[in-house]
User: What shape does this take?
Amino acid sequence: MNILITGGCGYVGTVLTQQLLDDGHTITVVDTQWFGNHLPQHPRLTNIQGDTRDVDAIPLAGIDTIIHLANIANDPGVELNPTLSWEVNVLATQQLCDRAVRAGVKHFMFASSGSVYGIKDEPQVTEDLTLVPITAYNKTKMVAERVCLSYAGQMHVHCIRPATVCGWSPRMRLDVSVNMLTMQALKNGKMTVFGGDQTRPNIHIRDMVNVYRHFLAKPDLPSGCYNAGFENISIMDIARRVADATPAEIAVTPSNDPRSYRQNSDKLRATGFEPQYSVAHAIAEIAAKYRAGELVDKDEYYTVKWMKHLALQA
Ligand SMILES: NC(=O)c1ccc[n+]([C@@H]2O[C@H](COP(=O)([O-])OP(=O)(O)OC[C@H]3O[C@@H](n4cnc5c(N)ncnc54)[C@H](O)[C@@H]3O)[C@@H](O)[C@H]2O)c1
Assistant: This one.
């Protein structure tokens, strides 16, 4: 299959691209390469350093499926430059959908976010609940989902709402909870947990990649939104798992953010998807990479710090 991956040089995109090459697909990646390029040279990979806002430059002839990951990908990153973020996360997404339909693309997947729900009292946060996005990042995701789904009459559209992703990638992110706590523990022998009672859903990066592979194999699944988050556990539980594996101390400081998020992914499971990995796997593999000297703490692994370094702020 011919697949375009936007954001294919990112944290998820790097692992996804490598896996889809291994699966035998032909891949085109379009990425600004803000966080570097860790993709290998490969005869079936065309790796373009480009911006999705320059939509006419994206080669769509012969593309069967688009996996659209290129976004400003967290709350503080979006706050840093809201105009850039709305342009990239929403406007460029609309233009990509529009051009995809014209080019005859049959299947479009969009990386939304489980954070679109906001804070919910319901113990089971399912796809039918209303969205009350809190941050500008959440808002861009909600609007972009609606834009993507407005094209569902012309191509299959799957908006995936991932939990926080964890685990190792050659383009590492250390600003996501499991990865951040694990790095603190390994580097300092100590983690700082703010509050700790807040519940968060998690997904291992390999399961994240497998979700996209699942939809690639089943493009006819009904267009719509699908949660993808499997371990709803407290930040303190994450820290305890890290402490068991590293070992490290846990220091608790008061938090001004008591928000808990949960996700129920039964809709995805009902399509035949089962996760195979856990937070514990993520901690173990990050620790192994660190101890082998293959993972060091770098500024470019922190989205906002690196966006400031690139002078991407408004
Ligand atoms: N990592 C998570 O925990 C998580 C959770 C939920 C949703 N998501 C979503 O999944 C997607 C991938 O996330 P990630 O963690 O890999 O983030 P990431 O920041 O590592 O990857 C995003 C990639 O997109 C590229 N990019 C940004 N703007 C671009 C543009 N205008 N044109 C071309 N490339 C551009 C960046 O250079 C980067 O390589 C994002 O849409 C994110 O919002 C991620």
